[in-house]
Design goal:
By secondary structure, this protein is of the alpha+beta class. It contains twelve helices and nine strands. The strands form two sheets. It has a seven-stranded antiparallel β-sheet, with helices on one face. Strands 1-2 form a two-stranded antiparallel sheet.
Amino acid sequence: MSGTGVFDLDSLRDRKNRERLKQTGPKNQAHKGGEIHDDADTTVQLRRESLTVILQVSNVRDDAEVHRHIGINDALTFAQLHDVLVTCFDLPPEESPWHFYRVDKSVENGAGKDADSTNEEQRTESRRIDPSHHVAEFLWREEEVVEFTWGLWDFSLTVADIYPRDSGTPQALCVGGSGSFPGSRFDLTAINAELTGQAVIDEVLTYLTPPARGIIERSRLFDFVPLLQALDLSRDVELSPEILQKLSTLPREVTTEGHDAFWSVVLGLACMGAQDLMDAVTVTTMEALGWIDDDGEELTADEIWGMCEASTGVLASVGAWGPDAAAPVDRLDILRAVLRGVG
């Protein structure tokens, strides 16, 4: 059974009781009211690891569409998921009635058709979900669907992906979307800042060296906070004294522009993704900090890297990037050390 399956606890408990009865015989049994009772506690306790569920949430109307892609901890209750959706869609602060519904689809033969007919009809039934239930109870495999109603608006929640999570993964994160409702706006950075919470943001930023923390505070790109959570900056690093000595000299640039370029590159590298993604993060960060080229245009990734060649050269020499890059686990240690500060 997969880690996301549903356990039949009653059947499992009954089977365990039968096996115990065969093994122990009458010595552990007590008679009460004409029935046999086992003195031992036969409760079966099962523990599953939480997973990250990527939801595609859509509101489709005749005149407009609004979409969000949201990653959540499947241990959240539906009441907590409601709060996440209100934030992601920037819904008005009013007490509108809301409910979640499980969608059950079954296929039946069309009316008046014989059993061998290929003419079939699909029947859809919706059952209201108690908001105290956990997401994992209903959205535990890809393409599972739950409906959400908020006031007069209807939303469809479809599981797009499921994968393991660790202690550093945020409880909820909006990873993209399009459109907005009248009177609201789609501001990804503001959404994730609210989902993360100011207390968590403050805690994560305390692990950063002051220059790196200043980059995030000046750019207002709090989307970096979940990334930094995932990096687990509190973890001990295992780097040689030689590498630590080299990292302690960074950044080597002397201008404000060079310093900002260096930290923008480091944050891009911390994404540990494809080159296009890392370049996009670097460019976005420099743009948010207000840097442009001589023609007033957005700086390219190559231009930004060129502003901090001395420092990126050091990073390459210790395996943080380039053709001689170290293994991912070692690169993470290098980036943790740089972001926390060495020396």
